[in-house]
Each structure stands twice: as C-alpha cells, then as structure tokens.
C-alpha cells in the first residue's frame, strides 16, 4: 500500500516538474504549457502507453492534466470502433463532458459565493 502512494507521488510529481520546467526554462505561457501536456497525454494514449502508466501510478497519472488528453483519445477510439468516423467526435465529448461540466458549475458557484478582489 505504501509503495502505491510513493509511486503516485513520484509520477504525479514528475509530471508537475515537467510542467514547471516548461514555464521556467522554456518560458511558455500557462495556456501553451497546458496544451502541450494534454497533447503529450493524448500521444501517449494513442501509442497505448498511458494506460500502463495509470496502472502503475494510479492517481499520480490520473489527476494531472495529461490524463485529460488520455481521456480524449480513449473516448474517441472507443466510440470510433462503435460508430465509425462520427464516433471520434462524440466519444471525446461523452467521456470528458462530466469533468468539464463540473468545472464550469463549481467555478460559477465559487464566483457567486466568494467576493473578487479588485
């Protein structure tokens, strides 16, 4: 059990270190960095490498933004097998819609509850 926590921390931390290095060394903007990490997760998923990483690191691989790219590719491929070319688009939206919807709803509630500084 302790090893599972350790590897989740290490892998999640490495993903965060990569993101921080993109900010600091490459001087990329937050939008560019997030997009790059999503694309990296999608590429790893496309080659079948992200699922073994999830099996090994658990939450260390499912919590960072790279997992969003994995979810997009995984949903698109699954639905493409069932519905053909149109499934590529619908699969991405189906898999990620609950997470994106939750982010929008909780962000709106947070904006209503808390007073912005200004």
UniProtKB/TrEMBL annotation:
Membrane-spanning residues: 6-26, 33-50, 92-114
InterPro entries according to UniProt: Spore_V_AE (IPR014204), SpoVA (IPR005562)
Keyword terms of this UniProt record: Membrane, Transmembrane, Transmembrane helix
Protein's name according to its UniProt entry: Stage V sporulation protein AE
Organism per entry: Neobacillus citreus
Gene: spoVAE
